[in-house]
């Protein structure tokens, strides 16, 4: 879309093998436009086709691919998915045996939101390897931006405002 981004703050997108379709399109677009760093323990799902289904007279169906998803740079998403820029499996973390391939992720998906569960959710998120990795990447990005701003301010010295001479008006003698 035309126009500028709403923010230029560093952005991290967390993905995994369950990230599909619109999530892949968005993360691919943010990545290709240099707006976000992608973190994940695996590639995304790789759903890159739009299909129309036509029911036939005998009850069978015909699936026709009518379009394919691509990132703005032309990278195909189908069967490949989005490849993360950074792995969010922390070094030395024990591998998980679960069937989702979530590595050392400790986040409990589907945690019910009931009164008092915010603390459990926050603890789960703060212990998740992908959240920790995203926090570290964003901290590094912020440090780079802050350093660039510091260097720029050292290079461009503000021009000192020249003061205009002030005259003092004394009261008339009494």
TrEMBL record:
UniProt-listed InterPro entries: ClpP/crotonase-like_dom_sf, Peptidase_S41A, Tail-specific_protease
Residue span(s) of domain Tail specific protease: 1-89
Superkingdom to which the source organism belongs: Eukaryota
Coiled-coil annotated residue ranges, if any: none
Pfam families: Peptidase_S41
SUPFAM superfamilies: ClpP/crotonase
CDD domains named among the record's database cross-references: Peptidase_S41_CPP
Record flagged with keyword Transferase: no
Keywords from the UniProt entry: Hydrolase, Protease, Serine protease
Keyword Membrane carried by entry: no
Protein name: Tail specific protease domain-containing protein
Organism: Volvox africanus
Lineage: Eukaryota, Viridiplantae, Chlorophyta, core chlorophytes, Chlorophyceae
